[in-house]
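Sample log: Rap1a immunity protein domain-containing protein.
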Amino acid sequence: MSMHPRLFRCAILAAAALFPAAANAGFYSGDELYAACTADKNGKDYFERSYECLGYISGAVDAFNTTREANNLKSCLPGGVTINELRTTTVNNLSKNPIDRKKSASSQVFAATRKAWPCATPKKAPAKKKAARKKR
């Protein structure tokens, strides 16, 4: 009995997640993400690759937002941003920065989303003026 290709790929990804990667290396590279996101529409694995692309990007963004929430920060993304907009932004960034595709895919999703939707800089409270001392 053979396993469906998509189930096989998911099983491989799940198994790989059980083994630690090097501390400075990502599990999935920007090159791999770019290949998944730019798969040939006429290819037999187009739908599988498209879901892989969308799933990875949406998972990465959810992880970023969860980290922000854990630190009592709000998401930097506007409420109406769609998964397809996240995909387009990420693919455009990967396309324009091929040298960065050697880095982890999650770092590239992060870079792309921060360029498109930068986080608001917290406003500093105005400095309190020192009260002038009256001369006697």
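Observation: The longest helix spans residues 46-70.
Observation: Residues 5 and 22 are 28 Å apart (CA to CA).
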